[in-house]
Design a protein that fits this description.
Elements lengths: L16 H5 L2 H8 L4 E2 L1 E5 L5 E5 L2 E6 L2 E8 L3 H9 L1 E6 L5 H8 L15 E3 L6 E3 L4 E13 L2 E13 L6 E4 L2 E4 L6
Antiparallel strand pairs: 1-11, 2-3, 2-6, 4-5, 5-10, 6-9, 7-8, 9-10, 11-12
Length: about 180
Amino acid sequence: MADGPAGGPCPPAPDRRPALENHRRELRGVLGSFATGITVLTAGRELPRGMTANSFTSVSLDPPLVLVCVLRTAALHDLVLDEKAFAVSVLSAGQEPVARRFADRGRPRGAREFEAVDTEPGRRTGAPILSGALAWLECGLEAVYDGGDHSILLGAVLDAGRGPGGDALLFYGGAFHRLAPSVA
């Protein structure tokens, strides 16, 4: 238990779930006020799967750790748990069609899922890494945490690299945006 302002125990946080459930749309708007980068999370050597994810962040440089949140019902979820590995491709501004493809629940599955996207298998995990990405990471699954309807996947970085550069693709206010170049 954490210490409170006077050194004593902190009181328990009030249960705010009922209030938030009644305001799901408002909460979505509030959370959409935070701009995020866009990634495609991939896993699988034999029959790979992918999904667009903007809930990705670095956790630690020493040891190198990242996390990503995945909906428990996503097709990729159980594959990551089985493979105990995944790759993350950080998308460039020109890769909005790729982001949309892997966010589309109606996209082709199986061997056809990656047919319209250039990839190469990661050296450490075999998971597809998207060509043209700003950066990429291959991760071993370090831990899985409960995150409500999502799992919080903690990945130990096994390999990483950068692509050709360029502007980033962002998600803000429920839409894709391109990061404007800075004016010096």
